[in-house]
Amino acid sequence: MKKPVDPVKIGQFESMRQPLDLQAAIKESNRCLLCFDAPCSTGCPAGTDPAKFIRQIKFYNYKGAARTIRNNNILGSVCAHICPVEKLCEKQCSVKALEDPINIGGLQRFASEYGKTFALEPLEKSKKNQGKIAIIGGGPAGMSCASALAKLDYEIVIFEKEEHAGGVPKWNIPEFRLPGEALAYDVKNLLDQGVEIRHKSAVESKDAITNLLKDGYDAVFISSGLSVPFKLGLLDGFTNAVDYIAFLRKVKFDRGSINLNGKNVAIIGGGSVAIDSALSANAAGASKVYLISLEHLDELPADQEEINLARLMNIIFKAGSQITGVNAHEKIISGLTGIETDWIEPGKFIPQNARQISGTEFKINVDLVVQAIGTKPGNEVLNFSKALKTKGKGIVEVDDNFDTGIPGVFAGGDVVNGGATVVQAVGEGKKAAQSIDNFIKNRRNSL
């Protein structure tokens, strides 16, 4: 069973759930049926192998469980807090046929924190004798690819545009969902492998990939993520209409500079980042927080646990609704007008498919509007190489092996999948690492 969420902790921007203690972890692991073909492990995109670490906890090998998680998933500590287990490993849990699934996320957090507390030995350093790989972007996919290649004794250099690695978990996920020390632990484990991270080293120049290959790198992995938020034209030019990236980052790292006490905040969007924005606004003291989405409640792209959390924190849902106008004085919004909608074609969740329902108009007073309606890759992706194929809003095209079609150039993570979970990015990074290793070995064998 999961520990309950503590609303007070959310307001204090501290971890919203207490970790399992030793007794609770033993009790929970003892519920495991020790399945032969463990479905929970097949349900993990990152290959963390929950069946193995649960079995190790069950038989009192706590350090062994911590090693399993760390060895299989360089972001194991992060994923223990934010992985949507109810859609993945816990959904596949055999115990679910009889009662609640095993609290796999809680056991992963217990084992990860046990390993950190009792100081596991550092991961083995790469011998750096198999080749040199450049990784563009130090988010989950880049970190995962780097770790997997370091285990194969490659020299790895991550080019990270920010002053810290971590990507979305570092900059956008609130601390009540992901404590900073969890990511710091995972980054330390990566550095223990001898991976070099060059901070404030954005790769943006024209033909950057070609230049990296000319500079002696045997392969390049693009994991630059999504950095440009979508915005509504209706809100252009207003000083109190911001995107979710800027908002979440400000709340996380410069909370003292914003004052939401007694104010109304409108979040536009229905995904995970919209929920995070709504909860952050609530925790920062907002009087009312509205979540306005085209999708209806049963269609929201956010995870059910996130939706339940928003309800717990009294977020006001205006689902199945569309903003139609702005009330403002000069450049400051004071209110939004909207109308309820339905879909012209069921299951097609795009604005052009929304049909307004006459007589359902509404108006809300707001002091801040946060747009959380998606992101796209930065324009630098288009400069990487003339031969790099993209689609839609700049998403990089790859084959099943994460090969871009340019010899030695691979890509994975959000810049390829358009925005998914951290655990999926970890899995893609590991698979891309294997493809990079195969490419280099095949090239050597052909010489």
Major sheet details: 5 strands, parallel
Distance between the termini: 57 Å
Category by helix and strand content: alpha/beta
Tell me the number of structural domains.
3
Rounded radius of gyration (Å): 23 Å
- Spatial order of the strands forming the largest sheet: 3-2-1-4-18
Helical stretch tally: 18
What name does CATH use for the topology of the largest domain?
FAD/NAD(P)-binding domain
Strand content: 15-25%
- Average pLDDT: 96
Number of strands: 18
Could you write a compact summary of the structure shown?
The protein is an alpha/beta fold and 447 residues long. Helix content is 36%, strand content 17%.
Task: Walk me through this protein's architecture.
The strands form 5 sheets. Strands 3-2-1-4-18 form a 5-stranded parallel beta sheet, with helices on both faces. Strands 6-14-7-8-9 form a 5-stranded parallel beta sheet. Strands 10, 11, 12 and 13 form a 4-stranded antiparallel beta sheet that branches. With 447 residues, it is an alpha/beta fold. It has helices spanning 7-11, 22-29, 39-42, 50-58, 62-72, 76-82, 89-92, 104-117, 140-151, 168-171, 180-192, 208-214, 244-253, 272-283, 304-312, 380-384, 414-417, 422-446; strands spanning 132-136, 155-159, 196-198, 219-222, 228-229, 241-243, 264-268, 288-293, 316-319, 321-329, 332-343, 354-356, 362-365, 368-371, 375-376, 390-391, 395-396, 409-411. The model has no long low-confidence stretch (mean pLDDT 96). Helix 4 (50-58) packs across helix 8 (104-117), helix 6 (76-82) packs antiparallel against helix 8 (104-117) and helix 6 packs antiparallel against helix 11 (180-192). It folds into 3 domains: 7-117, Fumarate Reductase Iron-sulfur Protein, Chain B, domain 2 (Orthogonal Bundle); 132-226 and 377-446, FAD/NAD(P)-binding domain, CATH 3.50.50; 229-375, FAD/NAD(P)-binding domain. The chain is built from 18 helices and 18 strands. The termini are far apart. It is globular, with a radius of gyration of 23 Å.
